[in-house]
Amino acid sequence: MSEQGTSYRELLPHLFRLEYSKMTAVLCRHFGLKHIETAEDIASETFLKATEVWAVSGIPENPAGWLYTVAKNKTKDYLRRISLFETQVKGAIKTTDYEPGQEFEFNRQTIADSQLAMIFAVCNPANSKEAQISLALQILCGFSVEEIAAAFLTKKETIKKRLLRARATLREDNFQIRVPDEAIIQSRMDVVLRTLYLLFNEGYFSQSNDHLIRKELCSEAMRLALILTENQLTNTTEANALLSLMCFQSSRLDAREDDSGETILFEHQDRSRWSIELIERGNYYLVNACTGNELSKYHLEAGIAYWHTTPTGDNKWEHILQLYNQLILVEYSPVTALNRTFAFAKVYGHKTALEEAEKLELTGSSYYHSLLAWLYAPADVDKAIALYQKAITLTKSTTEKKTLQREIDALEKQKAKSY
Amino acid sequence: MKEFVLIFRNSTNPHANPSPEQLQERMNWMGSIAAQNKLVDKGNRLSASQAKTVQPGNVVTDGPYTEIKEFISGYLIVKAASIEEVVEMARANPTFKTGGNIEIRQILTPEDKD
Asked: Whose CA is closest to A373, among A346, A401, A354?
């Protein structure tokens, strides 16, 4: 294998991810969403051609530019073919759907506008949350069915079916890939933000062991959130709060894992491995988020994530607890309830927090049991060990099992010493 | 699960000048109920100064109270399996430290008979 051969093989998947979704979005702008498959075919053929040509003649100087030129030519060919058959095959693509002579460009503005519109097209409230996220991964992020299935720990067939239904909705929606108007933005912005939030969380908290996919989910969610903040129409305080949250969270991505890929709990993380740059970006977007009067759950979560980046002291945990109190009032979730109790313990001690924790009764959750174990540990080691063991039986994640086992081992050691 | 209204009564206005510690205690109490997923509606605080009572015979009086010293300062709605459980929730509220009290009333649904 030549050196050139290896490097194009490394470059192509990356480029594919980055450019495939952009290309499809711009093409959909011309064909309409009804013909999204045509757009995807042209994009796929373009990449196929790149694989063939680049393997022989090497990577061109401007790979993205090369791809867009090929895509443009393929589109022209396609349109020419269509107009030839137009008289015979009526209705395949109606002449009103495109203007054959119209020159279209893959310039920065068109790409940005089309991508923004595509985000709003995909986040159709008619689809379920799961379907929206799968669709977002496929259409906005260029993920394969296999990769989506791996990220969700779900069977390929399930994802395929989910996507099939979601794409039918997409085609029938008659959504125009143009800069979305205010009415569309108002009616879909909540769904858009939630989808990006879930996309990020899928990567950040996923039980999947595929670290590469998890990281990509996070960075794709950030890329899409960034598109929102770059357009005046969608640059809302909520969008900024969400992006701020994502920056703070991902500043710890590298510190969260040791060299063997095992999870390092927050308290044991090496803070020098936190990304200062991302923390600063987080601060920047948080300041932007606080220019209005809105206080969304993204604001509150970004606030919590901000405090986590600060050193202990300054009533850090009091602030975090109060933000959790507000967050749980905005929206109940078991994870928020458990995190709130953790913060409560940091402020009022394990014993008082234990009473709070036992009221939660989230008996099916591994996190609930490991939280109880942590709260019991100073007073009752045996009980704590039993609770950690229970937690292990409740989680599917092998990384989490290992982390919990380490806690048990530490407690066993502590016990042995005290005899 | 049944729903219950908690009606807060005070003789001094709890919204006039609460200390940060008091606010924190109140939020902790409400957060605790919400964390159990038992908060139906966080309700509202009710003003003691912007208050009038409209009575028969075109009589309008200032304030919520003419004969009684206590006035309603706020309300919220929780859900629980029994009224006893709500009593336990209410007991933990910091309002008792400042002489307030809490009335608990089950919300009747169309099927309920009182």
From this structure: A354
Across the interface, whether the CB atoms of A360 and B36 are under 8 A apart is answered yes
Task: For strands B101-106 and B52-55, give the pairing.
Answer: unpaired
Q: Which chain A positions have a beta carbon within 8 Å of B28's beta carbon?
A: 321, 325, 344
B40 touches chain A (CB under 8 A): no
Q: Which residues pair with B59 in a beta bridge?
A: B55
CB contact at 8 A, B76 and B84: no
Alpha carbons A90 and A104: distance in angstroms, whole number:
24
ipTM over 0.85: yes
What gap in Å lies between CA A411 and CA A405, rounded to an integer?
10
H helix count then E strand count, chain B: 2, 6
pLDDT band at A3 (very low <50, low <70, confident <90, very high): very low
Inter-chain touch B28–A361, beta carbons under 8 Å: no
Maximum pairwise Cα distance, chain B:
47
Report how far residue B35's alpha carbon sits from residue A234's, in angstroms, rounded to the nearest whole number.
32
For chain B, the straight-line distance linking the first and the last C-alpha, in angstroms and rounded, comes to 17
Q: Helix H segments across A86-210?
A: 108-122, 129-135, 145-152, 156-172, 182-205
What's the pLDDT tens digit per position in A379-397? 999 999 999 999 999 988 7
Q: What is the DSSP letter of A257?
A: B
Residues of B in contact with A318 (CB under 8 A): 24
Give me the residue label for tokens 């490097």: A7
The token duo for A400 is: 């989490």
Q: How far apart are CA A334 and CA A363, in angstroms?
A: 11
Contacts of A356 in chain B (CB under 8 A): 32, 35
Alpha carbon of B63 to those of A417, B37, B80: distances in Å?
Answer: 67, 35, 33
